[in-house]
């Protein structure tokens, strides 16, 4: 469905006012453009999808800074391009750090089996996380459980919930943000 410039501007205006349907419409309208751009750059579906999700997250967080003198798609692509550059820099830095640490000494074989204390701390952290998840609305709890505890793909979650994949991605993104806010408040 091709949208006119005026209708896109109206949708952006509604998104700036916090209208969730407008956010979903923008995601549906521009998802393929950003994802296709990243797929050409990264040549990796997982990286392209991850950067695309982060692009929309950043764009929606900063929607008030969007200047409608420019095309919305161009703004999204610029955000996406910057996120890709950041990812490359991070990977390069991690690679260099790893190479540096390997050159210092012969690798030591470490027993990475968690101690009793480590297991107890992990269980306590998981219990706290589960309590925090229960503070979310049920539909957010469900999408987090399906993704992170049942380890379902976005497509499998979409099938389970009978919703489009893009809606699942947005819902999961919002759930993670709300959960992060709950955790920060503690």
TrEMBL record:
Gene Ontology molecular function, alphabetical: DNA binding; sigma factor activity
Keyword hit for Transcription regulation: yes
Annotated ranges, domain RNA polymerase sigma factor 70 region 4 type: 133-179
Keyword Transcription: yes
Domain of life: Bacteria
Gene Ontology process terms (BP): DNA-templated transcription initiation
Segments forming a coiled coil: none
InterPro entries: RNA_pol_sigma-70-like, RNA_pol_sigma-70_dom, RNA_pol_sigma70_r2, RNA_pol_sigma70_r4_t2, RNA_pol_sigma_r2, RNA_pol_sigma_r3/r4-like, WH-like_DNA-bd_sf
Keywords attached to this entry: Sigma factor, Transcription, Transcription regulation
Name of the protein this chain belongs to: Sigma-70 family RNA polymerase sigma factor
Lineage: Bacteria, Pseudomonadati, Bacteroidota, Flavobacteriia, Flavobacteriales
